[in-house]
Write a structure and sequence with these properties.
2 copies of one chain form a homodimer.
Chain A: E1 2-6, H1 11-23, E2 25-26, E3 29-30, E4 33-38, E5 51-56, H2 62-69, E6 75-78, H3 84-89, H4 91-112, E7 119-125, H5 148-165, E8 170-176, E9 178-179, H6 192-202, E10 207-209, E11 216-220, H7 222-234, E12 245-247, E13 251-254, H8 255-271, E14 274-276, H9 280-287, H10 296-300, H11 309-320
Parallel strand pairs in A: 1-4, 1-6, 4-5, 6-7, 7-8, 8-12, 9-11, 10-14
Antiparallel strand pairs in A: 2-3, 11-13
């Protein structure tokens, strides 16, 4: 089996590639080739016995999209995208990468025709939803993005469903929760603090908390996110019918509950490293974000997230503190 | 005031242009210029004292879109589109006209910048919804199109909301019900019979009914549709917030109720002209269509449809049987 991944140099992409390489198979089929593309050349995963083709490519370029699918990969993980903050700062770039890039990829698949109908797993986002919403967002709540990123993801969900309905590809859109605990350095993303207040104290470093302790959000670990993508790639999708976008399960907790989980994992000393520095801008952004999902469809289809924030911290420690 | 209309040669476009010409003003401002474009040169409305520029143009062409907005019309009615059946038969044409055409228009407005922020009224459709849905579709039901046309309209709704949120234009999307009674000849659109079974018997001609009498659907007259567009062009939209697409009110009736209204209007002799010829294809298509809406937001904003199917027949007789 040949697997193509866009956005393969990103955090989730690298973890997914490592997992595919380690498993060596997907859905019982040996993976003989991994094609990894991103705007920078992705690092090939270690210890993979099959062939790896890693290259820099801009899939919003029709030629690059055609080249990426020319060998007819059976499974496509479409992770490429400009993140929320960047799509908001640079409208044209967000439209080009997030909307036109996705469409160019879908079109490249469609234009092959000839019975080629790959499974295409698209990483959407809970940013397709924006306030006001109910306490818990069900599977039939409407798309109400409040960012250009969320609008672009939602538009691609619609195209993905239509390309699927018409038989051009076999698509599924996975709305990822906030992926926490992100490894690496603190960054300036508005959501960064959700990870920072766990990751940094676990290393004995201080971290800034810019919002109130009662802020609630919907989280899953990077490991769970990789699990969602693999499950989406192998699942029988006929049960989904025409509705090909799924909100993923996750752990809905307040910041206070995150902190108590940190205390259970690493004690009062770790918790003492969190510095409260309220930031009005971040408070306002975060107030528009979803807090909780009832991901009944995804759960019924076997998608699994952690059960508690303690599990999320445990996954982080196991995966990153080797 | 300068008003631009795309799709001005269509049935609704011609009626809207005639109404604008007759009124001579919009929201208390005299209309000094009407720019009418379509793929064929639209007929200028009669008895209009202002200037009319009518031309054939393809707004999916960036240059044509730029030319259309170069004089900075204050209000844009964006009616242009490939209809449902055609967008389903010709995927590329539907994408080009319905999605790329709308985006080219929005982009042309954005690229003027410089504080230019016209009111843009976009005709969306209840085709953004597809079965299964609740008996009555509320304002927070998700977008579930089952046609390429509906998918394209839904994607444009998302772009319209984002262009508006970012201040590039002042947009509102109007989800039109089935517009009934359509004037003119019977056509092959799957929805044609809703009009045919009224219009033809009123003229003493026979009409074919391809579905069961208990089929329920959501209707508004062409006159009501024009009223929606005018109201959308003049309304204070700040109350809408970021959610810029609105399902319009209408009359939800079964075919049997339509027929009883016809009987009240024109007697048993007219009703006897309806021939039942079940058509499995049309039955199946219509089974996926919305039946009823609770258009609470639109009603609260003052959008008004007919109160009964008798009113819809009366509007047809008054407007078309002169």
């Amino acid at each position: 089996m040949h697997v193509l991944m866009t956005g393969a140099a990103g955090m989730i992409g690298r973890k997914l590639a490592a997992r595919l390489a380690a498993d060596g198979a997907l859905n019982g089929h040996a993976i003989d080739k991994l094609t990894l593309i991103d705007v920078v050349t992705p690092q090939p995963p270690e210890s993979f016995s099959g062939k790896v083709a890693a290259s820099a490519a801009d899939i919003a370029d029709a030629g690059a999209a055609r080249a990426a699918v020319a060998e007819r990969p059976g499974v496509i993980f479409h992770l490429a995208g400009v993140v929320s903050g960047e799509a908001e700062l640079d409208f044209e770039k967000g439209m080009r990468v997030n909307l036109d890039g996705s469409r160019a990829l879908f079109e490249a698949v469609r234009q092959i025709g000839d019975g080629y109908r790959p499974r295409l797993v698209f990483t959407s986002s809970i940013a397709v939803f924006g306030a006001p919403f109910p306490q818990s967002i069900g599977d039939e709540f409407h798309l109400t993005p409040l960012t250009s990123y969320g609008s672009q993801k939602a538009a691609v969900e619609l195209l993905l469903a239509d390309y699927t309905r018409r038989g051009f590809l076999d698509g599924v859109g996975i709305r990822l929760p906030s992926v926490v605990v992100r490894p690496g350095k603190p960054n300036k993303a508005a959501s960064g603090f959700f990870s920072n207040i766990i990751r940094e104290p676990l290393k004995g470093e201080s971290a800034v908390l810019p919002v109130d302790d009662d802020v609630r959000h919907h989280h899953a670990s990077p490991r769970a996110a990789v699990g969602f993508l693999l499950h989406a790639a192998t699942l029988d999708l006929t049960k989904l019918g025409a509705r090909r976008a799924l909100s993923m399960p996750g752990v809905s907790v307040t910041v206070a509950e995150q902190i108590e989980a940190l205390r259970r994992a690493a004690g009062d000393k770790a918790v003492a490293l969190i510095r409260r520095e309220p930031d009005e801008t971040i408070r306002r952004i975060v107030a528009g974000w979803p807090r909780q999902f009832e991901a009944k469809r995804a759960e019924a289809l076997g998608f699994k997230a952690e059960q508690s924030f303690d599990d999320i911290i445990r996954a982080h420690v196991e995966d990153e503190h080797v």
